[in-house]
Amino acid sequence: MSNCIVGIDLGGTNLKAGIVDTGGRILHRLSIKTNSSADPQTISNQILELIAETIRSAQIKESDVAGIGLGSPGLVDKTGETILFSPNLPRWRNIPIKRIVSERFSKPCVLENDANAAAWGEKWVGAGKEAKSLVMLTLGTGVGGGIVIDNKLWRGANNVAAEIGHMVIQTDGPPCKCGNRGCVEVYASATGMVRRFKELFDSGAPSSLKNSGEITARMINDAAIQGDKVSLDVIEETGRYLGIALINIMHVLNPEMIVLAGGMIGSGELLMNPISVLPRKGHLRHHIRIRRLCFRSLGTMRGL
Question: Is 91's pLDDT higher than 70?
């Protein structure tokens, strides 16, 4: 009897897979690195191999799998069949990944924007179980967003709602992969944090990460915990820009809850403190509630 679901999170840094039961309980998970610059066929093959390996390593049969859920960053067409565009996977355009996966495994397949899937997962079995409205931000290589209003996922007229990462907060800011300038993602993503660290370091700011090779957001976070001033400044600035985005969300939607997830949440209070001290007017002072979640490998797939 089919009693579990495979979920795949197609990230710009990692491909993550997991298996859940029909109640949303995580049974098994697996992760591999994404070759984001690879051609679509190579990445598609990686996805197929990851699904097969996840089923094998979980020691279940393919017949035990009721369906497969795919969460992808960027734009998904209105029919939920094709990935139109993914800023963090530059060579992905109009990829019919749902058909590719469904044909290979002969299983029903659902394709959804990854942050939409994350938002519905938290509504289903996570932080937002008791909330009728919530906004979810996934903070990782990029910044994704998902919105639930009146217990329904809000996709917008053309299936492109909740691209919060591409909300412009600085019109003359650095260029974003989406083509605009000064997007939230430029400032509040792991990629943006690394970029700003390198800018400060290259301008002569001293850091304990000198001679550390390729800098990552995790390295910046670890250095900040040890008191590295450049790293602390970068994370504080990241928190301030993220806070601006959250206040704008509250002004427009006033959801019951904002859920933050993703690898960057590992910075904890270093990232959250700059948000908590931002000035808020009127009702926002009383209604902003941020649920801080440590990232779970299957966090973006639990609702599929």
Answer: yes
